Structure formats: C-alpha cells, structure tokens
Amino acid sequence: MVRRVVWDTLARNSFRSAHQYIKKDSPVQAERFRVEILDTISKLAQSPEHYPPDKHKVDRDVRYRAFEKFNYRISYFISESEVRIIRFRHVRQLPESY
User: pTM higher than 0.85, yes or no?
Assistant: First the structure.
C-alpha cells in the first residue's frame, strides 16, 4: 500500500532552516542536501517500515520511526493512509521524548 507523505509544520520549517543555513556556505551542498533528504523521504510512501522504531519514543510504539542523514534525524509516524514527518533536527540537538 502506498501512503501519502505529509510534513508537520514544525518539521518542514526546521528542514527549510537547515537548508538555508547550509546554502549560506555552499549552494551546491545545500541543493544536494535538499534533493537527497526529499528523495529519502519520498521512498517512505512505499516502504515506511524500512527504518527502525524511534529509540527516543517513550512508549516504544513501532509506528514511530526515525533515520539519520547528513547528521540530521528525521522522525516520522506511520498511519493507515499516511507517513507524517513529525521532527527534523540536527543530531547534536538534545532529543525530546514524546
């Protein structure tokens, strides 16, 4: 089953901020960052269980998953109809339990 990929506002804003920050130093690297992150996320529509359950999730609900790319941690939630990107943060930021 193919699910729709949806971004929470906070996650999308964090992604955009990271992209803009990288772009200040290197527009080429910023574009590579943007393309590869979005490509990886788009693949979640086909196989959302590809990545492991989120180790920072308090109750260990396996519908919450996460992966890291370019030192950013992307957390998402799998429902029947969609994959919701819920967090986008640098790995050096302290994780928030949820």
Answer: yes
